[in-house]
Amino acid sequence: MLLAHEDDNNSNGHPYWYAHIIGIFHALVIHTGEHSNSHAPQQMDFLWVWWFGQDPGTEQHPYTAGWKAKRLKQLGFISSDNPGALGFLDPKQVICGVHLIPAFHYGHTDVLLPLSITHPLSDNNEDWTFFYINMFINRDMVMCFHGGVVGHKST
Question: CB atoms < 10 A from the CB of 144, how many?
């Protein structure tokens, strides 16, 4: 979970983005650009992630979630057809991990990502179609979603 970088004026926006961490990498890099201070190798840490998107539902059955709707927010993986589905992330941007509950009702899917190293062979290249964000896993997570407390952004 990390802070969203969307327009704060958008009242429909969600304050967090979510990603599945595929790999954690450490590389020695040499920065040679015009703003380089040193030509010595420096360690760079980064995460390889597959992004989640919020489930908007359908036009006939929009998915509403949150405190007023009394439903957990629902996420699903972004399809690999979208060029931004997989990416890299600075670990310093991660606020905390979240507990995701598979939405068993919707079952599995194998159409979001072609056969790749992101899946163990035992998963048959399938993922859960949707997940619920367990915002009640601990009191700090509840306050992240409820807001109104110093240091917590409100949803």
Answer: 22
Single out the residue of 84, 80, 54, 48 nearest to residue 66, CA to CA: 54
Beta bridge partners of 109: 127
Nearest residue to 22 (alpha-carbon basis) of 51, 45, 2: 51
pTM of the model: 0.74
List all residues 6 or more positions away from 148 whose beta carbon is below 8 Å from its beta carbon.
Answer: 154
Let me know if 87 is exposed, middle or buried by CB neighbors in 10 A (0-12, 13-18, 19+).
Answer: middle
Residue matched to tokens 């939405």: 103
- Region of 125 please: left (phi>0), alpha (psi -120 to 50) or beta: left
For residues 71 and 52, what is the distance between their CA atoms, to the nearest angstrom? 18
pLDDT in tens, 47-105: 999 999 887 666 666 777 777 878 888 888 888 888 988 999 999 999 888 889 998 98
Sign, Cα dihedral of 10, 11, 15, 21: negative
Max Cα-Cα span within the chain: 58
